[in-house]
Input
Amino acid sequence: MKAFFIDCDGTLCDTLSIWRHLAEDDLRARGISPRADLNAAIASYNLHQAAAYIKDTYALACGTEDLLTAWEARLEDFYRYEAPAKAGAGAFLKEARALGIACYCVSLTPEGLIRPLLRRVGLMDDLDAVFSGHELDLGKDSPALYTYAASQVGLRPADGVVIEDSHFALQAAAAAGFHCWAFLDDFHGSDHNRALAGDADAILQSWQDGLDRLACLNEDL
Output
């Protein structure tokens, strides 16, 4: 194992609460009732893709950039000033790097949001790089974002472990040949987490579980 490729939202940081109602609240403010499956439909999209989907699906008169501006204004304060790191995430990153394992953050969220967050909660210094699907116009419904990140640091998928709280993202990474660890977040519900765990090589219910796995790796080195 040469590297961890770790999701941000719901994995390194506790940010999922704001995403639950972001698009729904925006539509309601425009006098439109969102469909029950809206969040599931856009879960694998970056913000650009989600805005385009909502504009087309709900026949909005505004442009996608108008949607993005409204969403990013709401997200910015939360990411810059409120959202916390997951307990133990920093300790995991430090221990992984002490073992010579590189750590990369791979997220759909714009870098302008996640970098200030990671810096504020003290995780940035222990990450070797940050890759954002927003800037690259890539989602996590295919392995392209993770394979791009690996290629940029000279690694093959088989050299790395992806740590994800999202089932569709973990499935995509596994299909590309990454080892995959599931990080269980209660936000997703028991059915999702059961499916996520079923497709993973290892299950983390907390970052302490991650530290325990690193301790086992250290014994094997």
Remarks:
- The longest helix spans residues 64-82.
- The chain has a mean pLDDT of 93.
- The longest strand covers residues 102-107.
- DSSP finds eleven helices and six strands in the chain.
